[in-house]
Amino acid sequence: MHLVIFDLETTGLSPARHEIIQIAAIRMRAGRILTEETFATFVQPTQPIPAQISGYTGITRAHVGDAPRPAEALVAFSRFVGDATLVAHNGHRFDLPFIHATCARHALPVRPVTYIDSLALSRQLWGGRGGHGLDAVMARLCLSLPDARRHDARGDVQILAETVRQMWSQLSPDFQTCPVTRNPGSIAQ
Q1: Domains of the chain: which residue ranges?
Q2: Which of the residues 40, 49, 51, 132 could staple to 122 if both were Cys, CB 3.0 to 4.6 A apart?
Q3: Alpha carbon 131 to its chain's center
């Protein structure tokens, strides 16, 4: 199965009011993380980055000042995705709505894409026990990637790729079948 695991950082939590400031992704095929096939870009927002977001993500105006505008960044991300299935942690409630709102805000045509919310993998493995946030999943898997900075999309996508690989292998060791439902979504064309 061809997957693109991705993560976004944003200026806040509301897709209607806030903007994407970073996109990172890594390709995965047949259970193998392809570390040489990555995508990462800062994105230049039209609004200032709030101080609490800079403190949380480490992303400042200096990082995004010369970055591509949202439409350019989303089109480049879409080209990287190709025909892959997207995977994001809490993607149903966060990442995909941000992509959809940003495409609408910038009048970008969209195309259909399937996606998997990796929360579903966690829930299938561990049911109602404990939380299903990325930190909780990492703890359950005894996963530590000291070189991957949390709350930086580039680091989070490395962590997420490994957690997805490990959870998927427990649910479908041959990586031939999808252990959870794939959902319809859309990204820039």
Answers
A1: 2-188
A2: 132
A3: 19
Q: Angle 97-27-40 (CA atoms, 0-180°, nearest 5)?
A: 65
Contact 188, 77 (CB under 8 A): yes
| φ, ψ at 18 (rounded to 5°) | -115, 170
Read off the tokens for 46. Answer: 């039209």
User: CA 146, CA 150: separation in Å to the nearest integer?
Assistant: 10
pLDDT digits (tens, 9 = 90+) for 27-60: 999 999 999 999 999 999 999 999 999 999 999 9
Q: Do the bridges between strand 20-29 and strand 110-117 make them parallel or antiparallel, or are there none, so unpaired?
A: unpaired
Q: Give the strand pairing for 20-29 and 85-88.
A: unpaired
Task: Give 9's strand partners.
Answer: 22
Q: Among candidates 79, 73, 100, which has minimal Cα distance to 183? A: 100
pLDDT (tens digit per residue) in 63-92: 999 999 999 999 999 999 999 999 999 999
pTM > 0.85: yes
Nearest to 156 by CA among 9, 19, 3: 9
* CATH class of the domain whose range is 2-188: alpha beta
